[in-house]
Known about the structure:
This protein is α+β, with helices and mostly antiparallel strands. The chain is built from 12 helices and 14 strands.
Amino acid sequence: MEAPATVDDVPIAGRCDPRFDEVREQFARNFVERGEVGAGLCVLVDGEPVIDLVGGWADADRTRLWRTDTLVDVYSVGKAVVALLALQLVDEGRIALDDPVASVWPEFAAGGKESATIRHALCHRAGVPAIRIPLTNADLWEWDTMTAALAATEPWWEPGTQHAYHTNTYGHLIGGIIHRVTGELPGTRLQSVAEPLGADIWCGLPEVEQARCAEVIWALGEMPPLPDPDTLLGDARMTQLSYFNPPGYSSMGVVNTPQWRATQIPSTNSHATAAGIARIYQGLLEPGRLLSEALLSEATSPQSVGYCPILGEEVTFGLGFKPTTERRPFGPNPASFGHFGTGGALGFADPDATVAFGYAMNHVIPRWQSSRNRSLMDALYRCL
Length: 384
């Protein structure tokens, strides 16, 4: 009988300040005890990298080691990043939070959305968490097709009166605003922010970079057939369409393809290293570097609180960033902010502890809480 794996069997590389050895231990235990396949972890304290670890494998067959430059889809971690790009336009005076979306994107007024503001869009109150017209995966690869379909969608509620998580449409909504204001797609804007920070994070991955990608491994098994959305009503219909219209909108069946990696779906398919995520949040900790202090404070404060019919529980949204909450904490300090991604990917900043944190992994175990990122956060704060 084969002996069970131990932490000594896990291939781990990188550096870790000795005072954070407990975090390294938990990082290794994630592979042995909590289903990790491949992952990276980067933590900066006072701007200095105290942890920069990679471990495990970049593929399901465990033939490629995870390297410091391995990129992986970090899912909704990208929502905060695309929101940052829009918030920078607010700081520049090119848009204002309470401007109607239609003031820069006239087609968005269709169907009764003329009252939806940029603030509503940023905090999931714009009323379009799902596109109503049936779409295909061929449509998914076309930016103009997706944004036009979103703009034409009749809102699911009067904008500004409630919220629901814009699971996948968030990227086309906020990205569409950015595109109309600047003429640039969000992935292009992202590189102008990421490169000066040395942040390895992308939306719309160039072909030359795709060899660095880890395979995303979904721990779902075979999905049962979905019901016909025409047989569903109300929130059930909205929720199914939010995830599966187009069918690959949540990455199902397409996640490891060149088309998925190259397409810009900023809510769902940004690719990054753990260090790339951490460096974005480090930039936010430096006063005025990426956002003005006043706007960052507003963006990371609760803007919408209440029950979310798509997530099925009480949720607090900031402007693209999630403020820390008891249910979904970013450590113990009240000013922390960030965003989780499907399966456990995570980026956050803690201004009180001057911590910038990035975690990226490829084994997606869908659950609302991730035991893996929680073990790393808890160990980090015990060490500080």
